[in-house]
Specification:
By secondary structure, the chain is an alpha/beta fold. 29% of the residues lie in helices and 24% in strands. The longest helix has 18 residues, at 346-363.
Length: 365
């Protein structure tokens, strides 16, 4: 299941909040090679040039997309010092060799426990739910086009990457002031706050971080199998249920593409049809981008079918796109989905921005 390698750190390539990227020379290959490896210093310490490191190269050798790089598992000859004693007993990435113990915002040792112990509502807060992590900056761009003052909190689920530090998008959005905070829920870890579930993550976003809008999606690295139910983004439907159960206004951001080679994702993706049409069981808003042309027709037809088949649960809202291209172009982080940028798959990002614009309208003027 795991392909192990031993290597020596050549140099540090770059670092960002909670992670660093290295060139590592791997000698136990048929031919010596240098690979890109990511380390999470909170877990393994800070590797230095010349250090021997143990690597997991499974995804790298299989040529996977988002996760297709080596991961530093340990620096065996220079282990990090024990961390200082601190409160918290939530274990995430449970029973994995690198399981981490963190302070949960909702646990008894938390200073916010009293606030969250009986909290039961997010007071109508708009909650924009998306399938892919790549939708996050586009949603915020659309929101900021009309409400630049809105306070946005990202609730990161555990369908993709577990460490929030893997996301340079979150790091860049935080640095630019576009994102107030990140809450990691389930097995995901490393956010500004940790929570046990999507429900307590949303409650913390509202009552601890004072969000105007929450965005919920998995971390980087969607998993899909080409089947109706076998994809990690199916949890978007569960997030819609959580938002409405807590008295929020669920906004279902559509996964759309004009450039995906796979027919099941062109126009309106089958992921949105399943997550919102079959898994979500409560009322939700469906912002439909007025794209025009052939792709616009495909999206509108798919959205009409989605809403029609929902037995009145879903409500479509046509969203004018004026100004959203400029808003997307102003993103402080690169826009990329499945290796395609804004100019290669405009429909994907504009659809997400349309959901952000709808959330802005729900906030009022």
């Amino acid at each position: 299941m795991i392909r192990w390698r031993s290597g020596v750190v050549v140099r540090e390539r770059t670092r960002w909040s909670g992670a660093a990227e290295y060139d590592v020379r791997v000698a136990d290959e048929p031919t010596e090679q240098t690979v890109c490896a990511v380390a999470y210093p909170d877990l393994v310490g800070w590797p230095q040039p010349g250090d021997r490191v143990l690597l997991n190269v499974t995804a790298l050798e299989r040529g996977l997309g988002t996760g297709g790089m080596a991961l530093v598992v340990a620096v065996p000859d220079r282990l990090p010092a024990d961390p200082p004693e601190r409160p918290g007993h939530l274990v995430k990435a449970r029973y994995m060799p690198e399981q981490a113990m963190v302070l949960g915002v909702d646990e008894q040792d938390s200073p916010h426990h009293e606030v969250l112990r009986d909290a039961d509502s997010i007071d109508g807060m708009p909650v924009v739910v998306a399938d892919l992590h790549s939708a996050l900056p586009a949603i915020i761009a659309g929101l900021r086009a009309d409400r630049p003052d809105a306070r946005v909190v990202y609730v990161m689920t555990d369908g993709g990457a577990l460490p929030a530090a893997f996301s340079r998008t979150v790091h860049g959005l935080r640095a630019a002031g576009w994102l107030a905070a990140c809450v990691t829920v389930g097995q995901a870890f490393g956010g500004d706050l940790e929570a046990v579930s999507v429900h307590t993550g949303l409650l913390a976003a509202r009552h601890v971080l004072h969000a105007d809008v929450a965005v919920v999606s998995q971390g980087p690295g969607n998993l899909g199998t080409g089947t109706r139910w076998g994809f990690s983004g199916v949890l978007a439907g569960d997030a819609v249920n959580a938002a409405v159960t807590l008295g929020g206004r669920a906004v279902a951001s559509l996964r759309v593409s004009q450039a995906d080679a796979r027919e099941r994702h062109r126009g309106l993706s089958h992921h949105s049809r399943t997550a919102y049409g079959r898994v979500a069981l409560v009322a939700a808003d469906v912002p439909v981008p007025m794209l025009g042309g052939e792709v616009g027709d495909l999206v509108r037809t798919g959205a009409d079918e989605l809403v029609r088949d929902s037995a009145g649960r879903l409500t479509a809202y046509e969203i004018d796109l004026t100004g959203l291209d400029a808003a997307l172009s102003a993103s402080p982080v690169p826009l990329s989905t499945m290796g395609r940028g804004l100019h290669q798959d405009r429909a994907s990002f504009v659809a997400a921005a349309a959901a952000g614009r709808h959330a802005a309208r729900l906030l009022g003027s």
